[in-house]
Write a structure and sequence with these properties.
Strand order of the largest sheet: 2-1-3
Shape: elongated
Structural class: mainly alpha
Strand content: 5-15%
Helix content: 55-70%
Order of helices and strands: HEEHHHHEH
Number of domains: 1
Oligomer: single chain
Distance between the termini: 17 Å
Keywords: Membrane, Transmembrane, Transmembrane helix
Protein name: Paraquat-inducible protein A
Pfam family, one: PqiA
């Protein structure tokens, strides 16, 4: 088992379940005018819209919003169970920085939508869950890296 500790390992394993929930969860509710009902927008519904309008941007967002964080979580799990060498951690840090692009895109979307004046945006619980997953992943990476630096690696 990992030197990072059981809590870190358990939290990382929980991200394998929480990320897909966060992708389906409503990030925000948007509507054109305050009088009309609001439509819920999730990561996946946002990606569906992108696929119909801009395939390149949809590929980039899919890579950074779905694949990068999930692959990083899987790789950290492999490090925790000593199935992947800790030497991979610097690569995982780069992957984690790329995964933060999704939080930036969501923040930018909310900012732009509020600036329009005609529409209305309400933040939903999925945005908090998605952000918590990203922040937890950053903390797990940091704790894993820290545990590898403070504990000498036994070579056989």
């Amino acid at each position: 088992m990992s030197r990072a500790g059981p809590a870190v390992v358990l939290l990382n394993l929980s991200l394998l379940v929480l990320y897909p929930i966060a992708w389906w969860a409503p990030l925000m509710r948007a509507g054109l005018l305050p009088l009309f009902s609001l439509s819920e927008i999730s990561v996946l519904t946002g990606l569906q819209s992108l696929w119909s309008s801009d395939i390149f941007l949809a590929l980039v967002v899919t890579l950074f919003a779905l694949f990068a964080p999930y692959l990083k979580t899987i790789a950290l799990t492999l490090v925790h169970f000593e199935l992947l060498k800790p030497a991979a951690l610097p690569v995982l840090q780069v992957l984690g920085k790329l995964a933060m692009a999704d939080v930036f895109l969501i923040a930018l979307y909310i900012t732009l939508s509020r600036g329009i004046g005609l529409g209305r945006i309400e933040v939903a619980w999925g945005l908090y869950l998605f952000t918590a997953c990203i922040l937890a992943s950053l903390w797990i990476s940091w704790k894993t890296q820290q545990s590898q630096e403070t504990t000498p690696i036994d070579e056989e």
